[in-house]
Amino acid sequence: MPVQPFIVEDTGLASEGWSEPKGRGVVGWQTLLSADRTPTAGLTAGIAHLEPGGHLALHRHDPAELYFLTEGVAIVTVEGVETQVGAGACVFIPGNAEHGIRNEGRAPVRFLYVFPTDSFADVDYRFSAG
Q: Distance between CA atoms of 82 and 74, rounded to whole angstroms?
């Protein structure tokens, strides 16, 4: 598929996800841009959903990542430092930094995630022990 300008809309639904409270986490997402699904390259992006009590467990991956919160309040942990962030916050996560996010509130959390890589399949999640 050749690379070209492309527009995709957020459906508001998490069509993929994990439901592993003691593993990878309880998180859903909709992939928006990924070269294996869309005629794009250079960036992978999607919208993640955390219901109250949901989380993405501490992990690392080679590419840097950006979180942009669009809804709710969450606790983001990067290299052991916890920070409360709300809608409008943009979090830069360096490559290989240990990080995770959790929703301790009563309202859903939604955030845009972006990787500087062609495809979501290029991101090898390495979850921390514990």
A: 10
Q: Could you report the per-residue pLDDT of 76-127, keeping only the tens digit for each?
A: 999 999 999 999 999 999 999 999 999 999 999 999 999 999 999 999 999 9
User: What are the tokens at 60?
Assistant: 């690392």
Domains of the chain: 20-127 (2.60.120.10)
- Look at the alpha carbons of 88, 117, 78, 107 in this order and tell me if their dihedral is positive or negative: positive
- DSSP-assigned letter for residue 21: T
